Records
---
Amino acid sequence: MMEDDMREKARNAMRLILEAARFEVDEVDQPLDLSAVRDDTCLLVLCSNDKNVISQFDKTNYSLMVNDHEMTCKKLLFTFEKDLSTENCVQWGIDEFVRYAGEAVLADILSRELALDLSGTRAKKAAVIAAGAGAAVAAPPQGSGITLPHFPIKITEQAAIKTAGIQGSAKLRFMPYFLFHYKSTGEQVYKDRRIPFDADGWGAINAINGIKLELDGKAVVEDEIPAGAEVADPHIAKEEASDRITNELIERLTQKVRIKQEKGDAIFYEEKILKPEKKNITIESKQVYIPVWQIRGKKIIEVNAYTGELLSEPMDEGVEVF
């Protein structure tokens, strides 16, 4: 049995998760714990280890009448019983609870909406998602056998579709980038002016279309990618990417110096353009991949699967994949 104080704590945590997903949450009468409503979705939550209560919850159909409109309610179960399975509700255990409680806290810190997948049940495949919109998440996708250095996938397929704002099929694609660390040193002196060219930073350049991103290479992982994901081939060579980065860094650090001079009754200004020397610039780069959800509906929308950013233009053009 789940003790009363433990059940109350579980109920409070589930409320936080659901509210992070922008549900309106209320407590309901026993034996249930919470109801949550958002748009056309109604969710009922039960926190229990009692097999009889869970069995009744699993086989009972619930509906909610809102403004003369009847909605069929989804059901979300949170239980510590590892061997228990249900057929008609989303089931969360400790793993799902910990995962979504943590993500809810992060969503609150970042002032973002927590994305919950309501598509499946534990009985159909494994791990489901936490309390709230009554979400269930399918078991982690199987590996593809391909190991790549890439930024981790933090955005789920359902969250990407929601961000895209269209209905359609989603495919996970890994886009090639050159992750670079640049460092510039040295200085130039003109008249009485000293111009330093110190710079140190990270970035990434798309190996297909040359578009740059600000990324920190410390987040890259060397891991197997999910089965079914596409991997795009680079169209820009590593040397070409390094030259582009060097030239753009020189352009950014270039300064125009204006010196005021007086000769007798005349005052005139002299301008000098000072640039860093290539020999004082070092570029370290390696090829990495950024995961992108491509949603194909009435139009094609892409969402960065690492940052959740909606991309304003495709990351590739006529990409070849293997």
Note: The radius of gyration is 27 Å.
---
Amino acid sequence: MRLKFLAPLMLAIIFLTGCSQEDTPEAALDEIKIALSERNSAKLSERVDLDKFFSETYDAATIELAKNYAAYQTKYPDDPYFQHDAEFLTAYNAEHKNLHMKFLDGVKDSFFAKMPEPELPEENPTAYVACEFEKIRQAANVEIKETRIDDDKATVILDVQGDSSLRGHFIGQMTFELGFTRDEKNRWHFDAIENLDELTPTLVDKAELVWITFF
């Protein structure tokens, strides 16, 4: 199911920049970037709760997919996932959420364990997605365009541009608005993609391309 590919894709292309000495949202991004580069799950967990992010993004994406279901049904007539109705999609995602979260846990574990890439995706799907995550992460160029802070909430706006590689062309150009919260120790933590409603159509297009190519 496409949603289990969207969260790794989003993580790969947004956590690639940030540089600051004091603790700021940009500093949190920088630590996330370093944690991913070092495959350090403990360091990453200090700045983002991946399980919570995956779960909440899954639910939010389900809402967006259902909201614009008719458009996806028309655009992808050969995809069985979009050939019922919005109520079916919502129920299907709810019924299979635990299964999809388990898959994402496997991707996460494969990534931090540095599992080798399988020759064929079906030989080890979680390791395959983890390896694609790293390749996409390296193919993305990210620039912070703006940071807005309102008390203990912040939004960091990122411009994402793919490089000249095949995966860079797959990434293309996107703008992410990332939500952060500050804890009682004045440490910033990444919480959510705030403009998921705007990004969902583009991300669905990319997920469909992956699905058609490999599945």
Note: Residues 19 and 42 are 20 Å apart (CA to CA).
---
Amino acid sequence: MRKKLIAVFLILVNVLSLASCTASNNSGVDEKERDEDRHSYTEEKIYYSIDKIAAALALCDGEELSKRCAVSPDSVIDNMPVVEEDDDDDDPYKKPDNILLIRNMIASTFTYEIEESTYKASVLDKKYSVDVTFSCKDYNKVALQRDKFLGAADFNMLMEEEEKTIDRTFTLEFVKKDKQYLLSNPDDLAGIYDFDLPELEFMDNLFDMIENSYMTGPGWDPYTECYYDTNTFEFVIDLDYRAQNYVWQYLYRVSEETEPEWTHIYTSDTIVDRYPEQIHLTYTQEENFHTGFYCFIIYDYQSSRIYGWEFNVYNSNDTLNTKPT
């Protein structure tokens, strides 16, 4: 047992001795490899910083961008299309700033590509640079697809389908501070948000695409615009060519004016109408409507707006019927 232990000990000594000789003979090679590893590590750290910078630019996050810069990136932050939510503003009819929203959406499409062949390092000065190409969706091509857009969401939907991009290349410079690689020329990125958008026009809601509407069906008199002795209301809405670009989502309601509030006779389920040319709605009940004042309206989910007709109904069997002559 003792001999085996000694033999093992001698083997270990020989191995360590050989390893030591090998290390001594290859010290120059190892030093070169260590330098290459250090340069590779530095390059990867800079590329990591670029990834964080690109994310901050896409999110319009000035605070996060500042963490990655050696100097304050005020000129970039001033140009950021930041969309802020106003919790105190509860006005449902306030028009959104569609251009600001669209600029923010364009920024969110930012991607980047590092031109690795342009990487330069001045290790003694702790300064580094590399060219980076930032790309965004071709918003100009999207802008040509509509005469008018149904808000910023409509623009964004088309932009998601766009494959062509607009590309811009920037030389990013970095300095090493406290083991971090920070962007030293953020002002050069200030123009990244200079989206040269053409003048865009917007619709307020789906109802802007209505050309004409009318009531019809049995008992409807177009001259007096009243129904007589009917159990059916028909509501027709003629739409212009733009309506065929959209999926309409709405519900309709039939109500009668009563005191102190209107009485809702019928409310439909949600209707999804894909690319309609016309909307034709019919409500029928078993007995004729009694004399009264009614309305037939549709409700647009997107804008929370209503559109419809109000009209009189006359029933000849009602003793209080005051049918116009």
Note: Residues 260 and 293 are 14 Å apart (CA to CA).
